[in-house]
Amino acid sequence: MSYEIKELSVGGILDQAIKVSKDGARVLVMIVSCLVLPIQIGIGLTQLAMTPSLPVDATPEEVIAAQAEIGPAAAITMMVLGLSSFIVYPLTSGALMFAISDLYLGRQPTVGNSFGRAMSRWLALIGTTILYSLAVGAGFVLLIIPGIIATLWFYLYQPVVVLEHKAGFAALKRSRDLMKGNLGKAFAIAFLVFLIVVGVTACSNFIPQRHTGVVVGGVLQGLAMIFYAAVGIVFYFSALCQHEAYDLKRLADAVSDIEAESANEPALGL
Q1: Where are the domains positioned within the chain?
Q2: Residue 33, C-beta contacts closer than 8 angstroms, at least 6 positions apart
Q3: Cβ proximity of 246 and 240 under 8 Å
Q4: Burial status of residue 242 (CB atoms within 10 A of its CB: 0-12, 13-18, 19 or more)
Q5: Which candidate among 35, 69, 76, 161 keeps its CA 20 to 30 Å from the CA of 92?
Q6: How far apart are CA 7 and CA 245, in angstroms?
Q7: How would you classify residue 176: left for phi > 0, otherwise alpha for psi between -120 and 50, otherwise beta?
Q8: Is residue 176 a contact partner of residue 186, using CB atoms and an 8 Å limit?
Q9: How many Å apart are CA 59 and CA 46, to the nearest integer?
Q10: CA quadruple 136, 201, 162, 108: dihedral, nearest 10
């Protein structure tokens, strides 16, 4: 497996992301299958069970009564959603990015090693994600354009948190520095990835069997998560090559140094 680790165009980034996803499909699918797929499918099936089966001409009283009966189920679902949002997804995203960066640098990742390293950056990733959400949310509250700009500035915050020993404001600033001259490229990539992910995941809506559709939808969302992480990692290395003229050896040495530091120091939040 060999990859063009250099500054890439929009097409080059997507092409490399697809290639690394295919080459590492076995380990990447295993990473997603450990936590994300069971919870994603479980949430879908729970929501399906919560949907009351009522006739079209049901009275308001019948609707209220049916909704009251599923009250406890709704509370449990919200707990599962919260668990997946704050624990499962950040941890799995970190594991995917470590594994994809290993593949991209010519090393062979394992599921256990990827999750182990992701644990060291888990709190940092959660804290920085909260800060990112606040920054982007504030931009959209003020006006739509500032929100879009903030999203593009901080497009690489996850790879920075995972692969560099940075978190919080430092990670966001680092992402903004790497994104200089790349905002248009990031907008095009984000738009194309959005179309690809929506198009792929929407396929499950055409399955007539609702429970089968939920399972297929969960699997497709897991594959979309892999592709999204791959795009982020390839874009990150492309930006490094653009701004810091890194070659393959220096990239590998830098990531090894970062991992050594992460093993010796506690993970940071904000």
Answers
A1: 10-264
A2: 222
A3: yes
A4: middle
A5: 76
A6: 9
A7: alpha
A8: no
A9: 25
A10: -160
Residue 208 vs residues 45, 78, 205, 214, 216: alpha-carbon distances, Å: 15, 27, 8, 11, 12
- DSSP result, the chain: -----S---HHHHHHHHHHHHHHTHHHHHHHHHHHHHHHHHHHHHHHHHHS----TT--HHHHHHHHHHTHHHHHHHHHHHHHIIIIIHHHHHHHHHHHHHHHHTT----HHHHHHHHHHTHHHHHHHHHHHHHHHHHHHHH-HHHHHHHHHHTTTHHHHHHHSS--HHHHHHHHHHHTTT-HHHHHHHHHHHHHHHHHHHGGGGG-SSHHHHHHHHHHHHHHHHHHHHHHHHHHHHHHHHHHH---HHHHHHHHHHHHHHHHHSPPP--
Q: Can you tell me which residue has the tokens 């990742």?
A: 109
| Contacts of residue 187, Cβ cutoff 8 Å, sequence gap at least 6 | 148, 152
Q: Which amino acid is at 54?
A: L
Return d(Cα 32, Cα 231) in angstroms, integer. Answer: 16
What does each of the 270 residues of the chain score in pLDDT, given as a tens digit?
Answer: 678 788 899 999 999 999 999 999 999 999 999 988 888 887 777 777 666 565 556 666 665 665 566 556 666 765 776 677 678 889 999 999 999 999 998 889 999 999 999 999 999 999 999 999 999 999 888 778 888 999 999 999 999 999 998 999 999 999 999 999 999 999 999 999 989 888 887 887 788 887 888 888 888 889 999 999 999 999 999 999 888 776 555 555 655 554 554 455 444 444
